Amino acid sequence: RPMFRRSHLKILLIGNSGVGKSALMNQYVNTRFSSRFRATIGADFLSKEVHIDGRTLIVQIWDTAGTERFHALGTALYRGSDCCLLVFDVTSVYSFQALEKWHKQLLLQIEPEEEPTFPIAIIGNKTDLENREVHTEHTAVQQLLQHPT
């Protein structure tokens, strides 16, 4: 049985503004990093061709605006998604605390029958910076990883 049902994969990056979603996307697709912050307006995506087990897969990474006013994009943006990466900035405890809100928003948008098996990963970004406020050994991090509802 093939690992992927289709020849493309749609991945959503979700999290507060400024956590580095665009930087993650650009680093993965273009192997290029920029420390300049430019807020995403609405949504943006980049594609990358990946070869897995002799198959070619087109990976679309969707970068979403991390502000409340763009939540209306939700349904269209989430439609057809194969997985979601919830992103927070390890130097901002606020961005970590907001993951619960982002997760709930995601669950409202995906198809109810997909909810139990919809792949979701949590990414702590900006780990190269020194003024870290969130550590993986924190109880809250462990709870979110075990029960992200």
Automatic annotation (TrEMBL):
GO-annotated molecular function? GTP binding; GTPase activity
Q: Matching PROSITE patterns, A to Z?
A: RAB, RAS
Coiled coil feature spans: none
Superkingdom to which the source organism belongs: Eukaryota
Concerning InterPro entries, the annotation shows: P-loop_NTPase, Small_GTP-bd, Small_GTPase
Q: Name one GO biological process term.
A: endosome to lysosome transport
Give any Gene Ontology cellular component: phagocytic vesicle
For this UniProt record, give its keywords in alphabetical order, as a comma-separated list.
GTP-binding, Nucleotide-binding
Would I find GTP-binding among this entry's keywords? Answer: yes
Keyword presence, Ligase: no
Q: Which NCBIfam families match?
A: small_GTP
| Family (UniProt) | Belongs to the small GTPase superfamily. Rab family.
Query: Which PANTHER family has this protein been placed in?
Result: RAB FAMILY (PTHR47981), SI:DKEY-13A21.4 (PTHR47981:SF6)
Q: What is this protein called?
A: Ras-related protein Rab-7a
